Amino acid sequence: MKVDFAKFSDGLVPAIVQDNQTQKVLMLGFMNQEALNHTESTGKVTFYSRSKQRLWTKGEESGHFLEVKSIASDCDHDTLLIKAHPLGPTCHTGADTCWSERNHPENFLFYLEDIINLRKQASPDQSYVSKLFSGGINKVAQKVGEEAVEMVIEAKDNNDELFLNESADLLFHYLLLLNAKGYSLQDVIDILKDRHSK
Question: Nearest CA to 39 among 19, 9, 17, 11?
C-alpha cells in the first residue's frame, strides 16, 4: 500500500476510521509512517497526536480500542480509510462516534456482545458480568442451566410477561457462555446457515 506522507509538511495524513460492520464513520485522526506501522503490527488503530507530540493508540486509557479489519489508501495516496471494530464508544465524550451518532448494529444481540466484552473487564464488585466470569466456566454454564429451567417452568404457565423475561435471561446468559468459551453468536449463526444450505 502506497501512502504519500511527504505530501504534507508535517508528514501526517488524515486517517478516517469506519465501523467495519455498520459502516458508520467513527472518527478522524492523523498518522505518520510510524503510526501506520504500529497500527499494522498491533492490530489497534494508532494515531500521531499533534497535541501530545507522540504516538497515541485509541483506547490506551479507556480500553475502548479500535481493532483493525482493513486499511486502504485513497486514489491520491494521501488519505487512509481504516475499517475497524470498536470495543466500546469511540468519542471521548462517551458517544458512539465523534459526531454523536448511534453506532449500534441492526441486530441488538451483536451490540450486546460488545457490552459483555466491556463489562467483563470491569471489577467483579462493580459488574455482574465480571463477577460471573470470575467464577469460571462452570459457574457461567451452571447459570445458563438455571435460566433454562426457569424458562421451561414459565412456559408451562400462562404468564406471558414472566415467560418472555425468563427467555431474555436465558438468551443473555447464553451469550455469556459463548463468550466464556471464546465464541460469538456469529459462530453459531454460521453453523445454522451451513445446515440450512445442505
Answer: 17
